[in-house]
Design a protein that fits this description.
Blueprint lengths: L4 E9 L2 E6 L5 E7 L5 H13 L18 E6 L4 E5 L4 E5 L8 H7 L2 H4 L1 H5 L3 H12 L2 H34 L13 H37 L5 H20 L6 H57 L7 E4 L2 E4 L2 E2 L5 H15 L5 E4 L7 H13 L3 E7 L7 E4 L2 E3 L22
Parallel strand pairs: 3-11, 3-12, 10-11
Antiparallel strand pairs: 1-2, 1-4, 4-5, 5-6, 7-8, 8-9, 12-13
């Protein structure tokens, strides 16, 4: 059952001389008046009556009054709350006859309902924690946000590393004409030596051929005497000439050039291998980054689903990165009217038994927004008692010099007392 304020009577508290009010059960009761007339004093009086001495004004008794403060509230559950006498002691009268006191009031009076600025002035993170406490997903959301932060930090590091490696790879020189593998100078020298040895052997064979020719000429001059020897030499010469025809001298010029350029070639090969490795490293880091991004996206989806499934006190409310959001806007980007609506909705949800809330300085709402806010309060079956610097028709009661003045919206209002130090009510 939601508990609301049915009646209130206040005398000699701060700027209030005498006010009696019956707030509307559902919707908005606006206490109007010019500045300094006692509007806020009424809200402070209600907070003191219900919240205990920690809400007692530092100068509770009205200046100039010889009579002590007098507070009398009647709640919808039948409780009567009184503070009167010299010490303004609390008296809670339970119609059922049970003992009652501040402890009973604390069980259903939500602190933020009588001290809304405490919630509105809290940090955005604390507001978000309050909302998460209400909907019961704080621990799970905190766990998801921690996972998201860890992955986000890791992804940031990986992304920077990938960018650095990619830039490093782009700045490196590449030689497309260079071979894929390093050149071995010793192997080239061995090939050179092999060719030189073969050339030497070919030279020996050629020298042998020349020698045989010379000998042939010599033998021709002695043919008669050396006919038998000539026949042998002719045979040898024939064999030698056949061998000489098959010989081919390979050039070492290319190998000599490769040996000379081996270090330069190897430098280019190493440069190409380093560039290939750098590009591979950059690609590996990019794949890590993409994988972390996918994990972060999944966690964010889980967070959104967690909040969508929760019983939020107001459509459009959410929490992101530990901060309260309404319609996608952070607290400092909300209008004053939106801040009040969000605060009221959250406070309403904190303690469902507390059916009322006190709101000061409602002049930040224009009349259309005020009407819309009042309709929302009625829809939520929530009672709001608010002050507004105004004397217009939207006010339920006008406070002037500490007294209540009748408006078209109220039938029971106080008139000034006959004597300055005593207060009499007219009903």
């Amino acid at each position: 059952m939601m508990i609301k304020i049915n009646k209130l009577e206040i005398e000699n508290v701060k700027r209030v001389k005498a006010v009696k009010l019956e707030p509307t059960p559902n919707g908005l009761t606006v206490i109007g008046g010019r500045n300094g007339q006692g509007k806020t004093s009424i809200l402070d009086s209600i907070a003191w009556a219900l919240g205990g001495n920690k809400y007692k004004p530092s100068q509770a008794q009205r200046e100039g009054s010889v009579l002590p403060p007098n507070l009398h509230l009647v709640l919808s559950n039948g409780l009567e709350i009184k503070r009167d006498g010299k010490n303004s002691d609390l008296k809670v009268i339970d119609p059922s006859g049970n003992k009652a006191g501040q402890k009973l009031l604390d069980s259903f009076v939500e602190e933020f309902a009588i001290n809304l600025p405490k919630f509105m002035d809290a940090s955005n993170a604390d507001k978000a924690k309050t909302l998460l406490q209400i909907i019961g997903v704080g621990d799970k959301l905190f766990e998801l946000e921690q996972q998201e932060k860890k992955l986000y930090d890791e992804r940031t590091y990986v992304g920077r590393t990938a960018d650095q490696k990619k830039k490093f790879a782009l700045e490196m020189i590449y030689y497309p004409e260079a071979p894929k593998e390093l050149v071995s100078a010793s192997e080239l020298i061995q090939q050179q030596q092999s060719i030189l040895a073969k050339k030497a052997e070919n030279g020996r064979i050629r020298a042998q051929k020349d020698s045989l020719k010379q000998r042939q000429a010599h033998l021709d001059s002695e043919i008669a005497r050396l006919i038998e020897e000539k026949a042998k030499i002719d045979q040898q010469l024939e064999t030698a000439e056949k061998s000489a025809l098959q010989l081919h001298d390979e050039s070492t010029e290319e190998l000599e050039r490769d040996i000379t350029n081996a270090e330069e070639i190897n430098r280019k090969v190493r440069a190409n291998l380093d560039k290939d490795k750098a590009e591979q490293d950059a690609q590996v880091e990019k794949e890590k980054y993409d994988n972390l991004s996918a994990q972060i996206d999944r966690i964010r989806l889980d967070k959104n689903q967690l909040l969508e499934d929760a019983d939020l006190p107001l459509p459009g409310l959410s929490v992101a990165e530990g901060e309260l959001l309404y319609k996608g806007q952070r607290w400092d980007n909300m209008s004053g009217a939106e801040q009040l609506k969000v605060s009221t909705a959250i406070v309403r949800k904190l303690n469902p038994e507390c059916g009322f809330i006190l709101i000061d300085k409602l002049e930040q709402m224009d009349l259309d927004t005020l009407k819309e806010f009042g309709q929302w309060l009625e829809q939520e079956q929530l009672q709001a008692i608010a002050t507004r610097v105004s004397t217009g028709d939207e006010c339920s009661i006008i406070i002037s010099d500490g007294y209540g003045e009748e408006t078209e919206q109220t039938a029971v209002i106080e008139t000034p007392p006959v004597q300055p130090e005593q207060t009499k009510y007219q009903f």
